[in-house]
Amino acid sequence: MAEAEEPVDGEEEEAPKKKSKKGLIIGLVLALALGGGGFFAVYSGMLLAPASEDGHAPEGEAPEIVLDLPPVAYVELDPLVISLGRAASNKHLRFRASLEVEPNYLQDVEGLKPRVLDVLNSYLRAVEIRNLEDPGALIMLRAQMLRRIQLVTGEGRVRDLLILEFVLN
Known about the structure:
169 residues; alpha+beta; Tetrahydropterin Synthase, Chain A; 2 domains; 4-stranded antiparallel β-sheet; 5 helices; elongated
């Protein structure tokens, strides 16, 4: 029979080698060092520093330039109450708006307010009830109304339509 080999004195069975955790420890130490350095750089103001309280930018940065707002005037439109018809669960629409106009054309647009109100009243009366009830449709309605107002007042006079009240009741 085969004889089992017995270890000779001085020769021991070799155990499987353990994986070294040296790389993991070095990676962890480097991550902590870089994280701490990044925190210090941001905290001390070396990176991403906000402007100082006196309004001046930190040294080495150009001051922020603030442009003046363009001149603007507003024409307040009379509130409209539009009946929506028998089929609507909501019987009326209350609508109030302002027009943002070029200051040189303020008097011209003021004189055309009755025509603007007529166009808005006609358009809102013709819009289907489901479009008025949809919250996302207000953007489309506003664009349509602005385009109609610009046709009545002439190009370049009215910049924007500001809806102040749009209530179904």
